[in-house]
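PROTOCOL LOG
Step 1. Enter all chains and additional molecules of the complex.
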Amino acid sequence: MQLELSPEDAAFRDEMRTFFTTEIPQEIRDTVAERRELTKEQIVESQRLMNQHGLAVPHWPVEWGGQDWSQLRRHIWHEEMQRAAVPPPLAFNASMVGPVIATFGSQELKERFLPATANLDIWWSQGFSEPDAGSDLASLRTTAVRDGDEFVVNGQKTWTTLGQYGDWIFCLVRTDPEAKKQRGISFLLIDMTSPGVTVRPIELIDGGHEVNEVWFEDVRVPADQLVGELNHGWDYAKFLLGNERVGVAPVGATKRVLAAAKQYAGEQLADPLTAARFAELENELLALELTALRVAANSSDGKPHPASSVLKLKGTELQQAVSELVVDLAGPDSLASGAGEDSAIPWWSRRATPAYLNLRKASIYGGSNEIQRQIIAKTILGL
Ligand SMILES: Cc1cc2nc3c(=O)[nH]c(=O)nc-3n(C[C@H](O)[C@H](O)[C@H](O)COP(=O)(O)OP(=O)(O)OC[C@H]3O[C@@H](n4cnc5c(N)ncnc54)[C@H](O)[C@@H]3O)c2cc1C
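Step 2. Run joint prediction.
Step 3. Record the structure below.
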């Protein structure tokens, strides 16, 4: 197995490393490295800088701002971004709705939305999940009824990440209540400033405001904002969810946090149990990194590889394990998450618990890890 980078790919890696560490403002990178919450402006600024250099949506068709890179180069781009603590391009735009519009949308929708989506001139939210329709997504109940040149939308979405910033939301809606579950769903683009759209915050255990409920009451949506064909939304959703899991194993970011944890540990590293915990996590991360590289190097047709479920599963487990290690290293200081910036307790100890609590989400979103295990059992192991 040859896993060394060719001289060309190594040069590409150096180019990415230089870009991310010199062009993206230090303050934004510090915010990520110190696990503080990014503002909307910081996320937009970072993505626009990348887009100016053709680095925001490399996996899109070249015509719409993509790069004709190998999977390996996309992987290197992603890893270097994480390693430099650069916020990734907004996933809802870059990995979710963008590729769906580029693949299934009309020419008019592409021209109208793709440049603005790449540049984050439009902030997209994802309106898939509903109460009782998360893992069992096809049970969704939000309806869209055709009325002349419009659809009238009614229902509720939940867990809408950063919906408070959303300009537009891409939604799965039921357009044929008589059809078999999956066959009566369509994919609709909705302007969140439309009358009848209400966004309500959900309070989180880490004290942050990251997710929301979104309500639709008689929201009128122009029919030309339907993506692809009526009642074929499930096919587009499956395509989108496959892409969502690609790049979801945050190897670079987890390695960065683990390396920082070694600094935080100081004298605690002399304790054999602590040292063994580091060694085990480093080995598992190395194995995951090599697996991710192997998957990237072996998938050539641009389609999500089924092994992306393995990466999601293992990647989120390791991310959570590292966040737990940081809490243990902080010890009683990890309880001081409410202390202000003038506290004598180091910042990393104060942020350890909120970060740990926040990362519980990683094994749920993007398809819960139990569901990933079922995908692995069926599509990889053939069980
Ligand atoms: C922080 C966060 C952000 C999110 N952001 C968004 C967003 O922006 N937009 C959006 O549309 N959605 C979003 N989601 C929703 C997310 O995709 C769903 O939470 C996820 O699909 C799980 O669905 P559920 O919460 O309804 O759990 P349920 O489906 O009710 O599952 C509960 C538990 O049962 C397990 N389970 C369910 N079915 C099975 C089965 N068949 N076999 C074995 N175990 C099973 C699950 O794995 C889980 O552990 C977000 C979720 C979180 C936590």
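Step 4. Note key features.
The radius of gyration is 21 Å.
The chain has a mean pLDDT of 93.
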